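Sanity check record (used in CI):
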Amino acid sequence: MLRRTFTCAALTLAVAGGAQAQSPAANYPNKPIRLIVPFPPGGGTDILARLIATRLGDQNQWSIVADNKSGAGGTIGITEAVKAAPTGHELVIGQKDNLVIGPWLYKNLPWEPTRDLVPVAHLAYTPVLIATSASSKFKTLADVVAAARAAPGRISYGSPGNGTSIHLSAELFEKAAGIQFVHIPYKGSTPALMDALAGNVDLLVSSVPSAMSQIKSGKLRPLAVTSAKRSSSLPEVPTIAESGYKGFDVSTWYGVLAPAGTPEPIVARLNADINKLLANPEVREAIQAQGAEPEAMTQARFAQLLKSDYAKWKGIVEASGAKLD
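Expected output for LacI family transcriptional regulator:
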């Protein structure tokens, strides 16, 4: 009798232990999920975040709320995510600017992306665009390069701000082409776009979504995109690589991350569910309509992208001399 009692008790503990081990993913989520958006409402990151939150909520019958926490180039929202409880109910949508460039620009950030965050799922990428007013004399990127070589330091471009991935992408192109532009930083994409349309700057360097409406209206002439492949939103616009600078490839990417310590089964489930969402043709079309390219990745591949870009952009930021307080 004693042996049987012991055996039954051991079996009960084993079953209970197995249920407990499965509980992080099996019971997830047990309350609404908050998706922190580190930028203001209405921008490209916000639009993508709300699209993912709505569609993933519908797909899984979950309650997901997008919550804007903007400031300091997106690093304030990341800071809040790092401090959140690692239960999978607090997520953040990050991108190259705030995850791999911001830490090298802002002093004394209380986090390091590869240590304090878990990459969950890559969402999409978007190239940087070089464009000019439709009334400009520049018809191609080659025209711009020829003018810059003929008059070094005379051709100007507007960007959404000093130290952004867009600004640094332009600097990388200057080095690749052996030319020198005059950089005019603005407080966001809209004022830079307006000055480019007015001819107050020769060029606009921007994300594709920020410029799309003016391109469609015929007021802005796209000259090149910085990604390795052409943008599906602008298939007629050549890449910089196609324009004579082989191997040039700079894009801004977006992804979902969680605080370090979030249980691996939950991370794995979120990765699988978001990748399933990105395979939905309607979702892909909605992302492409914003000028971005949907791209699913395994969790390991996304983690490697974050790690490699974080190391790569340290040198780029240091070489640019850009610093922010």
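DSSP finds twelve helices and ten strands in the chain. If this sentence no longer matches the regenerated tokens, the check is flagged for review.
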